[in-house]
Write a structure and sequence with these properties.
mainly beta, two-stranded antiparallel ribbon, 1 helix, globular
Length: 170
Amino acid sequence: MKPLFVLLCLGLVACGGSTISGAPSSATPKPVVQRKSSDKVSAPARFVFTRDEAFSKSKFGIDLKVYPVRDATQNQVGMVTVETTHGHRQEFYDVASFFVYYIIEGQGAFIINGHKQPVKATDIIVVPPNHKFYYAGNLKMLLVTSPSWQPENEREVRKLTNEQIEQAFR
């Protein structure tokens, strides 16, 4: 299955060459079918996930709130808030997931495959699988992973010192 990113709060959908319905872009669109009020529609067990339900974790200079959306999205999407005052003191890559960051507030830099990219509030950063990265700065972000992040897919490249993070931010 092709990765599907859903940033509900932004209304952004990326479908990897397919239309939202999953049909190839060149396919003839199907007519819209109107549902009757008597039609049964299967729905996810939950629609709303609160910050109080999120699992908290701190590692490598970042504070994470991991929202329990994996079951509701059939492991297609993971949602995490990320906060840091300095940066992520670990360079890594993921072999399976796209990492899509939305900068809520702050500024800094993402270092992707050794290339520094300045970032600020309202920017979106997309890191495909197998691309090494880390980031520096005072940042509050929403992270969406697709498919949902799995620990066995993450590969550490190196741990970073505070001095290396500060250099990246300059």
